[in-house]
Amino acid sequence: MKRFIIRIGLFFVLLLAFDRVIGYALQYMSDNARGGYLGHQNYILKECKDDILIFGSSRAIHHYNAPMIQDSLKVSCYNCGQDGEGIIMYYGWWQLIKQNYSPKVIIYEVFPPYDVEKGDNAKHLGWLKLIYDNKGIQQEFEDIDPKEKYKMLSLMYRYNSRFHQILLDYIHPVHSINRGYLPVYKELDTLQIRRDGAEETGDYKEIEMDTLKFKYLERILTELDDTKMVFILSPTWYGKNEQDLTSLRNLAMHNNCDFYDFTTDSSFVHHSDFFYDGYHLNSKGADKYTQKVVELLRSIVSNNSLE
Question: What is the DSSP letter of 271?
Answer without folding.
Answer: -
